[in-house]
Amino acid sequence: MTPVMITTMVLCFALSVSVAVSIGLASIAGIHMSNANMLISVKEMFAAINKFPLAAIPFFILAGNLMETGGISRRLVEFAKSIVGGVQGGLPMTCVLTCMIFAAVSGSSVATTFAIGAILIPALIKHGYPTSFAAALQATSAELGVIIPPSIPMILYGVSAEVSIGELFIAGFGPGILISLSLMLFVWVFCKWKGWGKNDGEGRMSFGRALLQAGWALLMPVIILGGIYGGIFTPTEASAVAVFYALVVGMLIYREIKIKDLYAIFRKSALSSAVIMFIIANAGLFAFLITRAGVPDAIGHWLQEVLKSPAMFLLGVNAALFIIGMFIETSAAIIVLAPILAPVAQHFGIDPVHFGLIMVVNLALGMITPPFGVNLFAACTVARISLDRIVTQLLPFVGVILLCLMVITYVPGISLGLRDLVYAR
């Protein structure tokens, strides 16, 4: 059964069939080969999405779209520019810092790409940066959308591996800040070397004025994250609060969202949510079938025999996840692989929360690596250029993220330090 499923899935990928449909067809082929009742597919697909924490996904997507339309994104850009925009290369640094702040609410890298990229990619081009560099920078910076909490992939990992989502969220701050600072340092040095961005400070607001203008926008992550860690509401409930806050600020305070805009916002959010939920449903069925076939146990035993130490296990897993992330969408990869790899990681004495951060950061790289990097497609859409034009500009950014990934992997304190402080053990 398993060889048929894998062959079917790989064949569908080769024929450019969408990830969700490929996984679903592979699962149906597996059911047919095992002579099981086809009703299993309906039952397991429903069970995969019938989980309360998953309700956070459509709400965070909707909150991100409301922020984009409601002027919150633009004000966050001006605030970030007031902090770092005065130095050479300040505009690319503004891109990274804005994505970091926006990520503290959106939970989605694609939403971050469109919301921030629509403002900053034209601004970067206007200031003389190559279009390919602007698109590559935006795609990479938006990856922070799934690393800085709240994060949709973290929710999926928590549900799949039965790990506390609250602990995953608090553990995400260390890696997110490390990657943000590394990217800002890199673009600052790179722009100095290239001679770009000498006039980035033009049109920059004073810090006080930008802070006053962005006050309501900056209060949003404080309320969401403060509510989660203050025990006021769960991460799932926080997603609904984010929607309510973004709607009130966008319609009543900034007054940039009109009643007529709501249909387009809801439609866009519903379509994005449906795509993710369809992937989750099919991946849940696939995970059920391979678990029933004993594949996770077999892989676990094989890894324990081949990779004798935790360090070697983590190196092997990182290499495998990097390749897998290039071809399989992050959400689907987490749902399928987390139940397989998390128990093996625990066998090696690796904290499941730390391992979850490794998986999320690694698979998030797939969002900025060809051929199926969703952030790349989003950034290219905004910049109106073809994918092949940004690949060379992308390589240094991938190198920076990989270096950060190795540090996150082998220095657990970056992920677990704040978690252990908040969740005293």
Description:
The protein has 425 residues and is an all-alpha fold. The protein has one domain. 76% of the residues lie in helices and 0% in strands. The protein is globular, with a radius of gyration of 21 Å. The model has no long low-confidence stretch (mean pLDDT 84). Belongs to the TRAP transporter large permease family. This is TRAP transporter large permease protein.
What kind of sheet is the major sheet?
A: none
What structural category characterises the helix and strand content? mainly alpha
Query: Rg from C-alpha positions?
Result: 21 Å
Through-space gap between termini: 43 Å
Number of helices: 22
Order of helices and strands: HHHHHHHHHHHHHHHHHHHHHH
Oligomer: single chain
How many domains? The number is: 1
Query: What is the strand content?
Result: under 5%
Helix fraction?
Answer: over 70%
- Give the CA-based shape: globular
GO cellular component, one term: plasma membrane
Keywords: Cell inner membrane, Cell membrane, Membrane, Transmembrane, Transmembrane helix, Transport
Family: Belongs to the TRAP transporter large permease family.
Main location: membrane
Structure at a glance:
By secondary structure, the chain is an all-alpha fold. 76% of the residues lie in helices and 0% in strands.
Give descriptors for this structure.
425 residues; 22 helices; mainly alpha
